[in-house]
Amino acid sequence: MKSVTWSYGAMLLLLVMLTAGCRKNLIFDDNEQCLSYIHVHFYSKTPCQTDSSYLGKVSNLTLLAFDAQKRLQYISQQENVDMNRDFSVVVPIKQAGKFTFIAWTGLDDDFIVEKLRVGESTQQDLMAHIRENKGVLSDLTGKQVYAGMSQTPVEMADPKEVGTFSKDSYVNLLERTYRIKVITTFETEHKKVVLQRNNIGVELKSPHKGFTPDGKFILGSVGSSSSILRYPGQFDYIRENEFSYTFTTLGIFSGNILTVEYLQDGKRLFMADVLDDILQKRPEINLACTHDLEIKILFKQKPELSFYTASIWLNSWLIHSYKIDLDVE
Asked: Deepest of 116, 157, 200, 323, by most Cβ within 10 A of its Cβ?
């Protein structure tokens, strides 16, 4: 058997042939096989963070690539992904152009994502809705939705002209879900009353039901049976005459209306816009950074045994104190 000895020059020639194969057609018979690649990396960094963090294990990940005309060119969908520092998605590129990426994670069967078609759909077609039934949105308890878009387009040359190469892109995934915990406390000064869960009605309603990854929200009337939609709340008994209701929402914006009713006499004790009437009392709360909110409302008893709103706290800060003549009817 003859042994084959590779000279340094022969090895160098082979390496050049491999790296220049697409350009010179030395390796592939069909130039359509010439590809370059963009490695898309993911991180999460709010305006309040100095360092990036990583989402870790997520149930699903969708990545979309758009060209300079904002037309969809590529879709990647994965399940049970560990989005650590070293994780990336490799996107094959066949032609020259500038590419932008949009990604999300956490959208499951409780959402409806508009069907997308490679080569046809554009960024304007990209919408996700919370499923709803007769005006009640799906319960998002325990779920977190993250979405983001690459900030700088990646410019790629034609691999058939310059050969195979790769570049990197980065997508900042930011949370779009919020958890609003509403604590209602009733003080019975004039007559001892033990309230039950069915004595109090707490609701959070919204005219919106969906979003686009660039932060725009969609009116509930789009594909909905109702223009005003209700978020289901998770009830918890804290102690006598003190209850909590936790709502998981998709975004917080004008139109999220919180109401508390005393069902015993059908009276509305409290109504406020979560953003305009409550959160704006604490402008230092940055919703790009804070996704867990606690609203505590104290109700006091009137001599005629009904209740009025006495005080409101937001994340342990007193933001308002009412007198009886300022009662919310």
From this structure: 200
CA–CA distance, 139 with 135 (Å, rounded to integer):
12
pLDDT surpasses 60 at 4: no
Please determine, for residue 221, whether its predicted confidence score (pLDDT) is greater than 70: no
Q: Which amino acid is present at 124?
A: Q
The span from the CA of 186 to the CA of 300, in Å, is 6
Q: How many CB atoms lie within 10 A of CB 327?
A: 16
Q: Of 5, 29, 26, whose CA–CA distance to 15 is shortest?
A: 26
Contact predicate 174/147, CB 8 Å: yes
Q: Would you report the helix, strand and coil content of the chain in percent, each value rounded to 5?
A: 10, 50, 40
Which is more confident, 236 or 19? 236
Write the DSSP assignment of 17-60 as a string of letters.
Answer: HHHTHHHHTSS-SSGGG--EEEEEEEEB--TT-SS-B--EEEEE
pLDDT average, residue stretch 172-189? 94
Residue (of 49, 80, 279) closest to 175 by Cα position: 49
Contact 110, 138 (CB under 8 A): yes
Q: Which amino acid is at 300?
A: K
To which residue do tokens 């919370």 refer?
Answer: 130
**Residue 307: what pLDDT?**
86
Among 64, 155, 59, residue whose Cα is nearest residue 109: 59
The SS3 of residue 231 is strand
